[in-house]
């Protein structure tokens, strides 16, 4: 049973989301502020997803999203009334799977949740390894020069797509379709480029290059 942490200060909305999720077979944990959310996240080490508001009584959800991705690969979906493009881009830059504007359709939210969880489960490749980089897809772990490397769920899926299709040019449109719902909010080439550049900073150095940007077309795994 998947466990989802719902961080939303609107009590009625929080309860409504949890009620519908539990009807669909999910287990939920409610938090109404960041302080409690951090406690619940630390206490429950088997959380599979976090639904996170941006505006919370004791801070912004962006910081908590960063903390989550420093510790592991748990996917985060922002549910927020902040509809400015720069806020959405910031959400993607801190590693969110999606940035959903309120009010939203619960049916669409459920679809997005199921698609993301399925993508994570579908990563069946075993391992990529050379003298510098080791990617264990089964255990979702990465080592760079013998040291553990923490990446976001989106970066991990991106890495999986590139390695699985080694040597093949993956166009921007193909990657956007595979990494996010086609109807996602503010998902564009800029968001993709942000994730690619962040991933490259984590897994590449001057002597080890893995991802090639084919200008105007897309990306290719050359490792």
Automatic annotation (TrEMBL):
Protein task: May play the central regulatory role in sporulation. It may be an element of the effector pathway responsible for the activation of sporulation genes in response to nutritional stress. Spo0A may act in concert with spo0H (a sigma factor) to control the expression of some genes that are critical to the sporulation process.
Residues spanning the signal sequence: none
Positions bearing 4-aspartylphosphate: 53
GO MF assignments: phosphorelay response regulator activity; transcription cis-regulatory region binding
Cross-referenced InterPro entries: CheY-like_superfamily, OmpR/PhoB-type_DNA-bd, Sig_transdc_resp-reg_C-effctor, Sig_transdc_resp-reg_receiver, WalR-like, WH-like_DNA-bd_sf
PANTHER family: PHOSPHATE REGULON TRANSCRIPTIONAL REGULATORY PROTEIN PHOB, REGULATOR OF RPOS
GO cellular component: cytosol; protein-DNA complex
Keyword field contains Phosphoprotein: yes
Response regulatory domain residues: 3-117
Keywords: DNA-binding, Phosphoprotein, Transcription, Transcription regulation, Two-component regulatory system
DNA-binding region in chain numbering: 125-223
UniProt-recorded name of the protein: Stage 0 sporulation protein A homolog
Chain ranges of the OmpR/PhoB-type domain: 125-223
One of the protein's GO biological processes: regulation of DNA-templated transcription
């Amino acid at each position: 049973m998947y466990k989802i942490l719902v961080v939303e200060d609107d009590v009625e909305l929080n309860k409504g989301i949890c009620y519908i999720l539990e009807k669909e077979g999910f287990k939920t944990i409610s938090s109404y502020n960041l302080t409690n959310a951090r406690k619940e996240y630390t206490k429950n080490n088997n959380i599979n997803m976090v639904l996170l508001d941006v505006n919370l009584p004791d801070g912004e959800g962006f910081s908590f999203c960063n903390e989550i991705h420093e510790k592991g690969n748990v996917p985060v979906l922002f549910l927020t009334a902040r509809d400015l493009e720069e806020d959405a881009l910031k959400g993607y830059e801190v590693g969110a799977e999606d940035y959903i504007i309120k009010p939203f359709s619960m049916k669409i939210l459920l679809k997005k949740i199921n698609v993301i969880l399925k993508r994570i489960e579908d990563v069946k490749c075993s391992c990529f390894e050379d003298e510098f980089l080791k990617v264990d897809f089964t255990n979702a772990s990465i080592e760079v020069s013998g040291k553990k490397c923490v990446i976001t769920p989106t970066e991990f899926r991106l890495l999986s797509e590139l390695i699985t299709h080694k040597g093949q040019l993956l166009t921007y449109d193909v990657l956007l379709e595979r990494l996010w719902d086609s109807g996602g909010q503010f998902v564009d080439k800029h968001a993709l480029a942000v994730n690619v550049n962040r991933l490259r900073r984590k897994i590449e150095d001057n002597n080890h290059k893995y991802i090639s940007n084919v200008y105007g077309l897309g990306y290719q795994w050359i490792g």
